[in-house]
Amino acid sequence: MPPILPGAEPFRRDGSATGVLLCHGFTGSPQSVRPWAEDLAGHGLTVSLPLLPGHGTRWQDLAMTSWEDWYAAVDRELRLLRERCEQVFVCGLSMGGALALRLAALHGNAVSGIVVVNPALTFPRVQGYGVPAGRFLVRSVKGIADDIAKEGRHELGYDRVPTRAAYALRALFRVVQRDLPKVTQPLLLLRSRVDHVVPAASSALVLGRVSSTDVTETVLERSYHVATLDHDAERIFADSRGFIDRLTGGGPVPAARGAEARDGA
Fold it and tell me: Which residues are known to be catalytic?
């Protein structure tokens, strides 16, 4: 296994019988959502933030993986959380939002609610058209990491995007879009007013196609795509806690089965 970049390690913390699975974005790493994970863990929740296959090492490693690999990793974590927790929520940033929505669509009542930040389900029009042929012409293109408005904050992500992986991402978008009507759980969607990575149509697509009746949309005015590291990060954390508390009753909850406090790397 290639060495994991410092800061890109997965994160796990045992807590209450309410679990939260967080999914990071394409070419990114757990670093981009770790403050979110740590905030939820500080709220007493059981939290799992895995490192997706092909991420957190070298961009060349990502080219050797598929969307099925990325999904299998979060599916496995969800099943592990379900063994320990009475309720599980799924959360994600960007592509992580797409993975969270697919988990909700396929696992039904095993998922109690969904929180997505700038969910990615579409490409910008020009890039989308070029993906199928582009993977045969060039190995990689310029990276998409670090779209952050706040000075001094940086995302630990690849500076190149392997075109083969971009094609796999396109396939993921298609299956998630197809199954959005199967999503019935309460949904909190937070999106940045200005996002240089994911088109605004992506969030509109989610809101227009899910079957959820409990839906909240929040517009983040001061952040770009990686909003979990940006000016509105605290708003995301607070809204997530409030969403989970509302759906769980907000009172004291027992510890997860076999829980003991730990960080995972």
Answer: 94, 195, 225
